[in-house]
Amino acid sequence: MVFDAPGAVAGIVPEARRLIGAARQAYAGQARPSALLADCARRLDEPLRVALAGQLKAGKSTLLNALVGQDIAPTDATECTRLVTWYRHGATPRVTAFARDGARADVVVRRDRGADGLPGAHGLHFDLSALRWNAPGPRAVEHLDVQWPSEELARTTIVDTPGISSMSQEVSARTSRLLTPSADPGGVALPSADAVVYLLRRLDAADVDFLESIGAGSQHGTARGFAGAAPGFSSGSPLGAVGVVSRADEIGAGRIDALHSARDVASRFATELERTGLCQSVIPVAGLLAFAAATLRQREYAAFEALAAVPTDDLTAALLSADRFARPDLDLPVPPELRAHLAARFGLFGIRLSITLIRLGVRDSASLAAELTQRSGLDELRAVLDIQFAQRAEELKAHSALTGLARVLTAYPGTSADAVLPRVRTLLADVHGFAELRLLGRLRSEDLPLPADDHAELHRLIGGSGVAPHLRLGLPADADRGTQHAHALAAVKKWRARAGHPLADQATTTACLTAARSAEGLLDLLQEPPTTPFARIRRRE
User: Fold this and answer.
1) Distance between CA atoms of 449 and 434, rounded to whole angstroms?
2) pLDDT of 168-219, one tens digit each?
3) What is the model's pLDDT at position 215?
4) DSSP secondary structure string for all residues of 380-437
5) CB 3.0 to 4.6 Å from 248: which of 284, 511, 515, 525, for a disulfide?
6) Is the pLDDT of residue 127 over 80?
7) Where does 114-194 show beta strands of DSSP type E?
8) DSSP three-state, residue 240
9) Which residues contact 322 (CB under 8 A, 6 or more apart)?
10) For the whole model, what pTM was predicted?
11) What angle do CA 232, 234, 237 make, to 5 degrees?
């Protein structure tokens, strides 16, 4: 549910569905626009689509495996990492390759074995060499579709994208076309992702340029919208974005305090990203550690337990590098092949941390996995993704569907569907849920002249800490309806007054009005249920 007007609550998804249905009737008999509109309609019923983007070797596939909790994405450098790969929920595992001309074929999936019978460190391998038609031209593989039984994928479709700084311009362009469809010269391209997680190992010009291109496309009414767009449209870029300082354990050279260093780096990245106004949060995550923790095997725990008994000086010398740790001439109670496996799966940071935790009292593999997951930053990232994406899934999907509808109406004018265009423009510009998402991004880039407490309250009121009424109002979960109603009413008065201050600049006024509308929407949600005005009349015996 989103606030469509002050004091009113409207379902944006039913409204989007109605408008798409009206347009489909107008385009009946026209194959191309009808197919595009059918895609828009399906978006409303599908899981949220979240794209993973970043430069080469940023750790996208590893983070995907960690989020899903299974090693389903190849993490070694193969042809698959040069393709856009969709990961969806399916009853049985299946990988399908799609060619540019629409041809499709099943892909052979292999899993290498690691040391001591354990799974290999790089997850699955998708063997494209068996595809006879995989050659340059219209029969080249355009993208892969992976269906896998997973609770996480049942809620969210994850799109793994090629690195934006690939040596091949075409490979990088695949990601650009996916996340900024207005840049696609091939015709009308619909928005493919509802939200994006952008992985950073460092922050250079390529990252900033790409983030700014997404940010420009997600803001309505900008001069950089897609060709021919009127104010109120966006170019189809994702409306929500979160930054991740990936491979965070490497920032501290694998030291036990590596994540503390990574958190400092994340804070610096967040500050530098303020001028893009895109990333609503920047979180440090040790993706390799998170993935290894999610798939920790008992045999690996037993190896760490054995290593924990080695004298500290001897173990420190062995862990100077991954190559040294796997040397067969070292006198350690774990075979060299298994040590190499641990180095590939956990990294030096993960090995040191696991051994330290066991020495501090962790006594089983489940406890170790939980400790490693917590320290990897994955839990914090999940919480942010829940607040920014999952709790706003309907709004994000509706924004993508309406943006797609706008692009179709603009590209194929001259039918009765033109009458739908003003309403679509109004929704994209004025739906309050969209305004909240845009403001959450801009709060990092706009230095509002508000006290720190008021700035925090504004961020919370527009859903920055969650969309539940008590979270928006900063109240405990057990706060009664009357208390919440009183706080919401006070918030309306406060932020309306702030918006009307004669010295407030335009940015501050807009932000305060957005907060006031959020509070008014809460008042509507918290209305007392209607009571029957007449006493119940009992039937005479």
Assistant:
1) 23
2) 677 777 888 888 766 444 467 788 889 899 998 777 788 878 887 776 655 5
3) 66
4) HHHHHHHHHTGGGHHHHHHHHHHHHHHHHHHHS-SSGGGGGHHHHHHHHHH-HHHHHH
5) 284
6) yes
7) 119-127, 141-148, 156-160
8) strand
9) 340, 343, 344, 347, 348
10) 0.82
11) 160
Give me the half-sphere count of Cα atoms (radius 13 Å) on the Cβ side of residue 531. 4
Q: Is the pLDDT of residue 265 over 90?
A: no
**Are 376 and 262 a contacting pair, CB within 8 Å?**
no
253-275: average pLDDT: 66
Tokens for 197?
């997680």
Q: How many residues does the chain have?
A: 541
Average pLDDT, the chain: 82
The Cα–Cα gap between 354 and 256 comes to 10
What would the two tokens of residue 399 be?
A: 């924004």
pLDDT of residue 78: 66
Q: Is 534 exposed, middle or buried (0-12, 13-18, 19+ CB in 10 A)?
A: exposed
Count of alpha carbons within 13 angstroms of residue 98, beta-carbon side: 11
The Cα-based distances of 373 to 152, 156, 340, 394, 516 in angstroms read 16, 20, 22, 29, 39
Rg of the chain taking only CA atoms, in angstroms: 26
Side chain identity at residue 348, one-letter code: L
What residue has token string 């002050």? 6
